Amino acid sequence: MQPRVLAASVVVRDGRGRILLVLRGHEPNMGRWSLPGGKAEVGEDLSATATRELREETGLRCDVGRELGVVEVVASVRTYEIHVFIAQLGAGQLVAGDDAAQVGWFSREELTALSLTDRLLEHLEEFGVF
Q1: Model pTM score
Q2: Contact residues for 113 (Cβ-Cβ < 8 A; gap 6+)
Q3: Which of 48, 71, 78, 123 would suit a FRET pair with 85, their CA atoms being 20 to 30 Å apart?
């Protein structure tokens, strides 16, 4: 049985209804677009993880709201249990940081042309984002 890693990610929309994605700069899923997020630190609340990871990867701050759902991602040596939150955009300047190679805002239509992490679009639809 693989170790389970708690993680959080966040869905953030801009004023035009687009969602914020990061191009992963490291494994797992290097070179693919995903929601901002990452591993929880020991004892860290998962909504705090979502807030911290968004700031580290994009330079933006947000007000984290309710949890939309949980996604399980099986990687080569561990399983990630990712709690997905919705957030209201706050302050900051958009810039790729931490393990994000790029960041950007994308409409639902634009997502179909991107190399996304496995089942990202399906999860967003399942959680009622689109």
Answers
A1: 0.92
A2: none
A3: 78
